[in-house]
Write a structure and sequence with these properties.
The chain is mainly β. The chain is 0% helix and 58% strand.
Length: 72
């Protein structure tokens, strides 16, 4: 886990990205990361051109899976 200044989707104002501290927890796949911002786990991507993570706490929220039901 590492914390860094990331662009946070929900903080975007007037079309401009806003930086805030978020935690990058782990890599999930090709340019897909598990991030946490304000206690919300969500997806993030890394933009190598600007050297920042983009944390999607609006559409990329990871919700806990409900327990599986018995198939009786």
């Amino acid at each position: 886990m590492k914390t860094c200044e990331c662009y946070i989707h929900s903080l975007k104002t007037d079309g401009k990205n806003v930086l805030a501290e978020a935690a990058i927890l782990e890599r999930l796949g090709e340019n897909d990361y598990l991030a946490e911002y304000n206690g919300v786990k969500c997806h993030a991507i890394f933009n190598p051109i600007v050297g920042r993570y983009y944390v999607d706490d609006v559409y990329g929220v990871i919700r806990n899976k409900p327990p599986e039901r018995d198939s009786r």
